[in-house]
Design goal:
By secondary structure, the chain is mostly helical. The chain has helices at about 15-20, 25, 30-45, 50-70, 85-95, 110-145, 165-190, 210-215, 225-230, 230-260, 285-310, 325-345, 350-360, 365-375, 380-395, 405-410, 420-425, 425-435; strands spanning about 150-155, 155-165, 265, 350. The strands form 2 sheets. Strands 1-2 form a two-stranded antiparallel sheet. It has a two-stranded antiparallel sheet with strand order 3-4. Strand 1 (about 150-155) and strand 2 (about 155-165) form a beta hairpin. The longest helix has about 35 residues, at about 110-145. The radius of gyration is 31 Å and the shape is elongated. It starts with 13 loop residues before the first helix and ends with a helix.
């Protein structure tokens, strides 16, 4: 029987039931739904709104349901309208009329709004742990090759020498910002909508502060209308997850480039690469490519949430049932990508010799060559021109700035001395920029 069946004279069409049902999605929130119901029942009993014996029976029955669902001894009914209906009906079957008192002073509108906040709070904690693991993997890989010099790039052109560890540090900073965004969003989300009712609260003398504290919320929503219709937290979390995927995708793109024969800066472990069905020589960075590709899926979840909410009047509308598909998928996808990314990074082999060779061949110490002349008193623009002229001579002769004879330097500018070679050494260039 539907919780809303009293008003209707006939059963809903099967198409209506199937289309309206959300248990396939919201069933994963069974623990949160039961926790919210336990807190609500305890408050109803404490306030004398329901008899103490009914309160005790409800809490005991809910505890049994939670244990059985967690253990797999009880399975969800796919024909149930939603997780709230399933649990309430199961409870009533077990404890009788006392179970029918559970929904006193509550609506499914504030119930689901509470459930999803509780569920996403747990998801945020798990994801923050994964991001912390990724940051640790990046730091460990950089520490493994502390002196490895590589070319830094702008416009995908070799630009200036940097340490491989410093390159990874840039990604550490990105993921640390992601951690901060998740923490901020989770903090704003951590207020209880329970007690908002359908939209206008309830006439029962409930204690919203009591249920909020019992569920670990920092407080409760000031507006009951906003309490049931707010999904900003879903959008904000989805935006934060989208930025995680932007950063994972950028990192993946570099790994894909670096393990190509054109770069060959790294070698992925065989356990985190795949081959070709027709080309036996291939070793493909499929995990990195899939992470890069799945970014679009998370971006789509964000766009779906924004579009769903943009035209909704207050308060609750059925459109909002679509929130869970989007935000759950975003979390699932990001967690899956992090699960793949961390061991892929941890097991990859870095090839510092190839990195240094690319750095030496790219004239990425040309700016330092100009800076050397500035130190001799030349204006930067004159020094810049002299250094560019030397690069052109190197290209014509098939040499590098390190191997170009001093006579060529002095022919371009007599201020060059033999110490220029120590000044433009790649390691020296890197050290100067770390001061």
């Amino acid at each position: 029987m539907k919780l809303w069946s009293g008003r209707f004279q006939k059963e809903a069409d099967k198409t209506t039931n199937d289309f309206n049902s959300s248990i396939a999605t919201d069933g994963r929130m069974f623990a949160e739904d039961i926790d919210g119901s336990v807190a609500h029942a305890a408050m109803l009993g404490a306030k004398g709104i329901i008899p103490a014996q009914d309160c005790a029976a409800i809490i005991a029955g809910l505890g049994e349901l939670k244990a059985e669902l967690a253990a797999g001894a009880l399975t969800l009914d796919p024909d149930a309208e939603d997780i709230h209906t399933f649990i309430e009906q199961q409870l009533t079957v077990r404890i009788g009329d006392a179970g029918k008192r559970l929904h006193t002073g509550r609506s499914r509108n504030d119930q689901v709004a509470t459930d999803i906040r509780l569920y996403l709070r747990g998801q945020c904690a798990e994801l923050r742990e994964q991001l912390t693991g990724l940051i640790a993997a990046l730091r460990a890989k950089g520490d493994e090759y502390p002196g490895a010099v590589m070319p830094g790039y702008t416009h995908l052109q070799r630009a200036q020498p940097i340490l491989f560890a410093n390159h990874l540090l840039a990604y550490e900073e990105m993921f640390r910002r992601d951690l901060g965004r998740l923490e901020d969003a989770a903090r704003r989300m951590n207020v209880s909508p329970l007690g908002s009712g359908a939209l206008a609260g309830t006439g029962y003398p409930i204690d919203r502060a009591m249920t909020a504290a019992a569920l670990g919320f920092d407080g409760f929503t000031a507006s009951t209308l906003d309490g049931v219709s707010d999904r900003d937290f879903c959008i904000e979390l989805s935006a934060a997850l989208s930025l995680v995927m932007v950063h994972l995708s950028r990192l993946s793109e570099e790994l894909i480039l670096w393990c190509s024969w054109e770069f060959k800066f790294i070698e992925l472990d065989d356990a985190f690469a795949t081959g070709s069905s027709i080309m036996p020589q291939k070793k493909n960075p499929d995990l990195a490519e899939l992470i890069r590709g799945k970014s679009g899926r998370v971006f789509g979840d964000l766009m779906g949430l924004l579009t769903m909410m943009k035209g909704l009047p207050l308060a609750y509308n059925k459109d909002m049932q679509e929130d869970k598909d989007a935000i759950f998928d975003a979390f699932d996808t990001v967690r899956l990508c992090l699960t793949a990314a961390v061991p892929m990074l941890a097991t990859m082999t870095v090839l510092p010799e190839n990195m240094r060779k690319a750095a030496a061949a790219g004239f990425i110490n040309a700016t330092d060559c100009a800076d050397y002349l500035v130190g001799k008193g030349l204006p930067f623009r004159d020094a810049y021109k002299a250094s560019g002229t030397l690069v052109a001579r190197c290209i014509a002769a098939g040499l590098t700035l390190e191997t170009l004879p001093l006579a060529e330097y002095r022919d371009v500018c007599p201020d060059f001395e033999a110490d220029v070679f120590a000044f433009i050494a790649l390691e020296a260039c890197v050290i100067r920029r770390q001061q």
